[in-house]
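Final report, closing paragraph on structural work. Over the funding period we assembled a curated collection of sequence-structure pairs, and we close with a single example.
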Amino acid sequence: MTENEISKEVVDACFVIHTKYGPGLFESVYEELLSYELIKRNLKIARQVGVNLVHDDIVLKKAFRADLIVENKLIVEIKSVEELKDMHYKQLFTYMKLANVKLGLLVNFNVALIKNGIHRIVNKL
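Its predicted structure, as stored:
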């Protein structure tokens, strides 16, 4: 599957979850539900993946944890906040650069309409 095909599946799964439960749950609950929905769609996922950061001769083990990495091609960062801040976008972009991933989705489930909570970030590598 391409990054775009994977992204479509993730977005659809987010719609399914948000339609059923709406906003207001903890991020960990949405992560669990989204993981389940993606596994049902036969997608390979990894949760809370620690990614190393290499700086000169130093290796910082697990410098960050990605909420979900889908098919080793897409990072999904899950939020349940009143409002996304600029730092949330920057955080995901940095994760994508360090993990050498081209596409990321920043998903805020704490919105009235989930389409307003899904943001696509592209790393041009």
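The mean pLDDT is 95. The longest helix spans residues 3-21. We thank the funder for supporting this effort.
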